[in-house]
Design goal:
25% of the residues lie in helices and 29% in strands. The chain has eight helices and 18 strands. The chain has helices at 2-26, 31-38, 120-128, 163-176, 197-206, 231-237, 252-264, 307-313, and strands at residues 48-55, 61-68, 81-87, 90-96, 109-114, 134-137, 153-159, 181-188, 210-216, 225-226, 245-249, 271-274, 290-293, 298-301, 331-341, 347-348, 353-356, 360-368. It has a six-stranded antiparallel β-sheet with strand order 4-3-6-1-2-5, with helices on one face. The longest helix has 25 residues, at 2-26. The structure holds FE2/S2 (inorganic) cluster. Residues 320-323, 325-330, 356, 358 line the site of FE2/S2 (inorganic) cluster.
Length: 370
């Protein structure tokens, strides 16, 4: 037994050394850069996903099924992954939430992506994704997920493409045989804009204890509710909402509406949200000072835009992912100066501090390690 263990350990060391040797020989490029020339899904370290199925359920959304490489560690319903694609020779990364159950038996990941008019990656995927396309992936991340143990009452609220993380929560709860009070309230312009409508109809008829409510803002018939979110909608579909935990994801208007109602009701601590939206706090147009990108020896006049945008305007290419303060890919060290976080309005003048470039604007002179 002892000998077997020893030989297993030395076998592992042997493999590890061989891998290290190959990686050293591959320098300056990672071994995966060479392997992808043979098969992009054979990787040593990189996590990637191969598109195995493409489905377009509404005119501006595409649903992709991805087979991840062996590094994929799974996710909790509600979390997001970063998806990277190469467009015109440049890799672009964006965050998307899987819509599938976290227990999906084949281990594949389902993403439903809305093609935003200005969305470089979403437009690219909507137009070009087909089986065989390989994208880069990150491990799942984010604090927007269901707690364990599950609350006794759960209200899921979404709007538009914000349906994906809460759809994942709904499917996960159904897989678990959740027996508490559960309502799924989704907002869309019209019935034709609802992703997963057929599946939601099927859930409503097969699970009488689950309330599925579709609310249309631009359609006066059909559906369960009409118009925008308010207490009447809450009382109609989840009269027990004061005792529930509510999970919300959607466009800024819906987020503001729900947050406002929950504040008035004194229920803000029961509201959990995922905001896939660009920064919203307006910053002063009265800007001055210079931005010093110290690692690149570049100094630029402060334009008042985010540090990520100002770095790009100066011809630099800092790493980024979501561009909305979620993924932390753009984090860099600010060595001096003051910045405002455009999502929270907080100002930071502490030197040698890590900040997120995509949501930070300089106030006066700022030096940053880029
Ligand atoms: S790019 Fe994701 S946090 Fe800045």
């Amino acid at each position: 037994m002892a000998i077997q263990q020893k030989s297993r350990r030395s076998g592992f060391r042997g493999k590890f050394s061989l891998l290290s040797l190959f990686e050293a020989m591959a320098t300056p490029h990672a071994l995966d850069r060479y392997l992808e020339l043979v098969d992009p899904m054979t990787t040593v370290r990189d996590l990637r996903g191969e598109v195995t199925d493409v489905h377009r359920s509404t005119s501006d959304t595409v649903t992709l099924t991805l087979r991840p490489t062996h590094q994929w560690a799974g996710f909790e319903a509600g979390q997001f992954v970063q998806v990277g694609v190469v467009i015109d020779g440049v890799r672009h990364t964006r965050c998307y939430s899987p819509a599938c159950s976290q227990y999906r038996s084949d281990g594949r990941i389902e993403l439903t992506i809305k093609a935003h008019p200005e969305g470089l990656v979403s437009q690219y995927l909507h137009r070009n994704a087909q089986p065989g396309l390989v994208v880069s992936l990150s491990q799942a991340d984010g604090t927007f997920h269901l707690p364990t143990p599950r609350p006794d009452r759960i209200l899921l609220v979404s709007g538009g493409s914000g349906i994906t993380p809460v759809m994942s929560m709904l499917r996960t709860l159904l897989d678990e045989g959740y027996s508490g009070d559960l309502t799924f309230l989704h907002y869309a312009y019209t019935e034709n804009d609802v992703s997963y409508r057929a599946e939601l109809d099927a859930i409503a008829s097969e699970h009488p204890t689950v309330r599925i409510a579709l609310a249309y803002t631009d359609q006066v018939d059909g559906g369960d509710l009409h118009g925008f979110f308010g207490t009447e909608h809450l009382d109609a579909v989840a009269p027990w909402h004061t005792d529930a935990e509510t999970y919300l994801c959607g466009p800024p208007g819906l987020m503001r509406g729900v947050k406002g109602v929950y504040e008035e009701l004194g229920l803000s601590d029961r509201l959990h949200l995922e905001e896939f939206a660009a920064p919203t706090i307006a910053v002063s147009e009265d800007v001055d000072g210079d931005v010093t990108f110290s690692d690149s020896n570049v100094v630029a006049e402060n334009s008042g835009r985010t540090l990520l945008e100002q770095a790009e305007d100066a011809g630099l290419s800092p790493a980024y992912g979501c561009r909305m303060g979620i993924c932390f890919t753009c984090t860099s060290v600010k060595t001096s100066g003051c910045t405002t976080n455009v999502q929270t309005g907080e100002m930071d003048s502490e030197p040698h501090k890590k900040i997120q470039l995509c949501v930070s604007v300089p106030v006066g002179d700022v030096a940053i390690e880029i």
